[in-house]
Design a protein that fits this description.
Chain A is α/β, with parallel strands linked by helices. Chain A has 22 helices and 15 strands. Chain A has three domains: 231 residues, Leucine-rich Repeat Variant; 86 residues, Translation factors (Elongation Factor Tu (Ef-tu), domain 3), CATH 2.40.30.10; 157 residues, 3-Layer(aba) Sandwich (Rossmann fold). In chain A, β8, α18 and β9 form a beta-alpha-beta unit. A five-stranded parallel sheet of chain B has the order 3-2-1-4-15, sandwiched between helices. Chain B has a five-stranded parallel sheet with strand order 6-13-7-8-9. A three-stranded antiparallel sheet of chain B has the order 10-11-12, with no helix packed on it. Helices cover 33% and strands 15% of the residues of chain B. Classes of the chains: A alpha/beta, B alpha/beta.
Chain lengths: 548, 500
């Protein structure tokens, strides 16, 4: 074992959280690992999977990071991981499965071959199915025949695992990837599972069918059939309900999707004003943050810099406000940046090219204030907010202003849209908290440098509230007209509900109608921060409910 | 079927007691979202119909904002011809199922019913509801005969009661109608603002479907004023006329300290989260709701009752705070009664002056001033006066139900559209034509906040004039008020006119 791996391995297996943290940070800096080193590193990382993290939020997060780092080592160590996976206990098996899932397409064939070679080992099959359920790459559709084979097993655990895997695939892979005939076969297999003697199997069958319905895998007839079957399970039609509570409770949950599935299909008006909000392009900007190009021709014609939209990824989704990073009026698309943080944003980022968002509505709010200024203008973007400053920067420059852009992030890998911003600014500064790129520190450090260099007349900051607050504080009393775009909690986005109340200059304002841009020096940021935390508990619950 | 009350004299009819609407028991209904009134049975309906004495000059018809021929439909019910009764109602009212449920009959038809002079008035609302439900449950064909297309196109903005009615009226006159809705589903306030236990979703959806079957085009997610302006509609999109039925959607707040604390909602937000976004089914539906155990509702209108009863169903102890007394409460009598039956507490003569929060910025208490009522002034109204006494109640959720101002999106983007200083769109009160040519408006957007039936009545009137406008028969001297202090179209307006 090489020295560098050895010291890291010692730290990881030390049972000390701080050491683990330090070790993971070191791993991120390693480069040019040989195959041998990668395998050794993997072995060390995987020891963290066996640690008891009950009640220790930080440790749990570190373990998840180990999983991602493991996945980043690439297909070279996949074989070794599957060897571990098939033997692993339930807890660590999930991490091996998760890491394999993140590796994606390159390891699908390997996984496939393992299904075949371990055919007689039920436990191995269960864990392999678990792993197959973690993939988000459409290539995983290739293992569906294996899942179908496992669904015919006489072992109820294998059978349930197969249904689990199928349900996961429904939720993660667009239906078009799986052929019509295969989808039909999947439905029949799952449907047969509803009459299995084991309640566990029945429950997983109900759940998988529900996921199929939700993700448009089935025909209207199949949805109706499922709907009726769930009603029967619940005793809504006769008195011979399913005697197992777990099956009934699952059916109750999923029934609701069938009903809506039916209604949704019937109501698909396609008139002159029909916009199909399909995704034309998707790009990962940095982990968990995605760039989307969404078709919305009517909207694209009218939207202005600073305005926002509300999207609902699925028919039952929350209404989520989003700022706009750009548009093309001719081609009729919008450019948006979504960071997967809670349930709805995660649902949105799980959509792929060719999928559709259920609803996109806008343009909402007032356009950004732009004028010709005496001094320079500075637009500052923090994290996912960077996208939102691009259109305004373009407008400012079009009016003949000198425009500086500032992009800030925690670290180099999280910097996004720098090139896009460069295209619309005279000069762009980059800041990172850890100094891994550009100026070390916060966006305010860059702003300070610009202000020291020349007169700044206007600043626009979009990003997390603390960042906007810091900018406001810095420019206060220095004759800089400062705007911030407030991301308050909203429901309708048209001024109807008042959820987005913010105090600006001592008056109650609605961010959706009067804003989203406000004079930074008058905004009560402390209130905004607290109001944004109103649903923290519920958001957690909603997120967990999605993952079940 | 035989006429149930054949041969009975008017006196005998008038002596029969009213068939009270059967209700689910209060203790049970607060555990469910099911509709509270059960509805008449066929027998009850016929028995109630007997009570109508078929006045020669009925008072009830002009007291109905849409002028339903009430005696005629009741006669048909008595004769057992419910399908005929349904047809009769549909001649003038497009949303009978909703109106039978949410109309304030005690302030309209039933208030003037002759039978009510000695006895309880005829249960007109209950009968209307019965007829509409019968029609729906028996799938009777409801699509009216339509004349051939006129080739004229109308844009209807908003798919609530006003928009739906206007669309129905114009479509059945042969015009092409496109309804633009900002939300992702139709129904407007009937969906987002009226609870399911008062108005079930299927009732609204049936009517939306009827419109679709008639060929009305619905376009969702369209914020007129932003994505397309009214000028765009008339000039670029080829519409010949526009009807604005966008309702009143900008909630009023009190303007007292602490009103932006967490856990304080407007009634619109609270009800929208629940009834449009299904937050009561959280986390199946991901839209959250912060629902405390002790809830205060400010105001005592119909919406306040809806919020109170909704809170009760979500397990909270609910209290209504109102600065006047029980007599002045603007809610429908029936709603107040239902709320009282459902163990809602009332604190009359209490005027909130401040909300106190905890360190997490969540509301924890409400501070009220005790009020007293003045002697009636010239207008006969008794004003609430401060007494200088205060009390503090612990609460963890507060909902403001103080009514709405008109949503400013369309007026602000349509400079030619005149509004008064409260943002209410000004119209000519005969034709509902606005200050912009070819643009009509009706419903809460011209009244500043009223009822479903009034919105429908206005939309119906407006539709008649839109039709005239489209057919080139629109010869009126328009009088659209220019005074910014002018009130919106008054609730009593048409009612009073009819009485004269």
């Amino acid at each position: 074992m090489t020295n560098r791996i050895h010291s890291i391995a010692a730290k990881i297996s030390s049972q000390n959280t701080e050491q683990l943290k330090a070790a993971l940070a070191e791993v991120a800096k390693l480069s040019d690992l040989s195959s041998e080193e990668k395998r050794e590193l993997a072995a060390a990382l995987s020891t963290s999977f066996y640690r008891d993290h009950a009640g220790d939020e930080e440790l749990a997060q570190l373990i998840d990071r180990s999983e991602s780092i493991l996945a980043a080592q690439g297909a070279e160590i996949a074989e070794w991981m599957i060897e571990q996976l098939v033997e692993a206990d339930a807890e660590s098996a999930e991490h091996f499965a998760g890491a394999l899932g993140q590796m994606g397409a390159p390891v699908v064939d390997l996984l496939h071959s393992w299904f075949d070679t371990s055919r007689n080992d039920d436990y191995a099959q269960i864990n392999l199915l678990l792993a197959a359920g973690q993939f988000t790459d459409p290539a995983i559709a290739r293992v569906l025949p294996e899942a179908l084979r496992c669904a015919g097993s006489t072992n109820k655990q294998v059978k349930s695992a197969a249904f689990y895997c199928i349900g996961r695939v429904f939720a993660r892979i667009p239906p078009a990837t799986v052929g019509d005939a295969d989808r039909s076969m999947l439905f029949d297999t799952l449907f047969a599972g509803l009459s299995d003697p084991s309640p566990l199997v029945r429950r997983h069958a109900v759940r998988a069918i529900g996921k199929g319905v939700r993700n448009n895998y089935f025909t209207p007839e199949q949805v109706e059939k499922s709907h009726n079957a769930f009603r029967t399970i619940l005793g809504m039609d006769h008195f011979d309900w399913d005697n197992a509570y777990i099956v009934r409770s699952e059916a109750e949950y999923q029934l609701h999707f069938c009903q809506h599935g039916l209604a949704e299909r019937q109501a698909m008006p396609k008139g002159k004003y029909y916009q199909d909000f399909s995704i034309l392009e998707k790009r990962e900007l940095c982990p968990n943050t995605y760039y989307f190009k969404v078709n919305a021709p009517l909207l694209a014609k009218k939207i202005q810099a600073g305005q926002f939209i509300i999207i609902r990824p699925n028919y039952d989704s929350e209404r989520m406000p989003l700022s706009i990073a750009g548009w093309d009026r001719e081609k009729g698309y919008l450019e948006i940046v979504i960071m997967a943080a809670g349930r709805t944003s995660t649902e949105a980022t799980q959509k792929n090219v060719g999928d559709r968002f259920q609803d996109v509505v806008g343009p909402l709010g007032q356009r950004s204030h732009v004028a010709k200024y005496e001094g320079a203008c500075v637009v500052l973007g923090g994290g996912y907010g960077t996208g939102a400053v691009i259109p305004t920067a373009r407008d400012l420059r079009a009016l003949g202003n000198k425009v500086y852009g500032v992009v800030g992030a925690r670290t180099k890998d999280l910097l996004i849209l720098v090139d896009e911003l460069k295209a619309v600014c005279d000069e762009v500064f980059v800041t990172t908290n850890d100094g891994s790129a550009g100026i070390e520190g916060f966006v305010t450090h860059a702003l300070e440098q610009i202000m020291a260099r020349e007169k700044v007349s206007m600043a626009l900051a979009v990003g997390p509230v603390p960042m906007m607050m810091a900018v406001a504080k810095m420019t206060e009393g220095k004759g800089v007209e400062t705007w911030v775009s407030l991301n308050a909690i909203m429901v309708d986005g048209t001024g109807m509900c008042g959820a987005c109340r913010v105090t600006v200059g001592g008056k109650t304002r609605f961010a959706c109608y009067h804003g989203p841009d406000f004079n930074a020096h008058q905004v009560d940021f402390n209130e905004l921060i607290k109001r944004q935390r109103m649903f923290v508990e519920q958001e957690k619950i909603a997120f967990e409910a999605m993952q079940r | 079927m035989a006429e149930a009350g054949k041969g009975l004299s008017a006196k005998e009819r008038m002596q029969k007691p009213r068939n009270q609407m059967p209700l689910h028991e209060a203790g049970l209904r607060i555990l469910s979202w099911e509709e509270v009134p059960i509805g008449y049975s066929m027998e009850q309906a016929q028995d109630e119909a007997i009570r109508c004495i078929q006045c020669k000059k009925p008072e009830c018809v002009p007291a109905c904002p849409v002028g339903i021929n009430i005696p005629a439909f009741i006669k048909l019910v008595e004769q057992g011809d419910v399908a005929g009764a349904a047809k009769k109602i549909r001649e003038t009212n497009f949303l009978p199922a909703a109106c039978g449920r949410v109309c304030p009959q005690d302030k309209q038809c039933e208030a003037v019913c002759v039978v009510g002079k000695k006895n309880d008035p005829v249960g007109i609302g209950n009968l209307e509801r019965f007829v509409a439900d019968y029609e729906r449950e028996h799938n009777l064909n409801r699509i009216p005969d339509m004349p051939p297309s006129t080739g004229k196109r109308v844009a209807v903005i908003g798919s609530g009661p006003a928009g739906m009615t206007c669309a129905y009226e114009l479509r059945s006159r042969g015009h092409e109608v496109t309804v633009f809705e900002a939300f992702h589903r139709g129904g407007g306030v009937m969906v987002y603002g009226i609870p399911r236990f008062r108005l079930p979703l299927e009732v609204i959806d049936e009517d939306l479907k009827l419109l679709e079957d008639m060929g009305v085009e619905f376009v969702y997610n369209m914020i007129i004023g932003k994505i397309l302006t009214i000028d765009d509609l008339l000039e670029k999109e080829g519409f010949d006329a526009v009807f604005i039925g966008t309702g009143a959607g900008l909630p009023k707040m009190l303007g007292v300290p602490g009103e932006n604390l967490n856990g304080i909602y407007s009634a619109n937000e609270y009800l929208t989260r629940i009834y449009l976004m299904h937050a009561n089914e959280f986390p199946q539906y991901p839209t959250p709701l912060y629902q405390g155990k002790k809830m205060a509702v400010i105001g005592a209108g119909n919406t306040a009752m809806d919020v109170l009863r909704t809170g009760k169903r979500l397990g909270a102890e609910v209290t209504c705070y109102y600065r006047r007394s029980h007599e002045e409460a603007p809610a429908r009598t029936e709603e107040l009664e239902h709320a009282e039956q459902e163990f809602v507490n009332f604190k009359w003569l209490s005027n909130p002056v401040e909300f106190l929060g905890d360190e997490r910025h969540f509301v924890k208490a409400i501070k009220c001033e005790v009020m007293k009522l003045s002697e009636p002034d010239e207008s006969g109204r008794r004003k609430p006066l401060p007494t200088g006494e205060y009390f503090i109640d612990e609460v963890d959720t507060v909902v403001f139900s103080l009514g709405c101002d008109v949503n400013p999106i369309i007026p602000s983007m349509t400079p030619e559209l005149r509004t008064n200083k409260w943002g209410v769109v000004m119209v000519d009160t005969t034709t509902y034509h606005t200050s912009k040519k070819g643009v009509f408006a009706g419903g809460d957007v011209v009244t500043g906040g009223s009822t479903v039936i009034l919105a429908m009545g206005q939309a119906k009137e407006a539709a008649r004039h839109v039709h005239e406008y489209l057919m080139g028969q629109f010869n009126y001297e328009l009088n659209v008020p220019t005074d910014p202090n002018a009130p919106g179209v008054q609730w009593e307006g048409r009612f009073a006119k009819a009485k004269r």
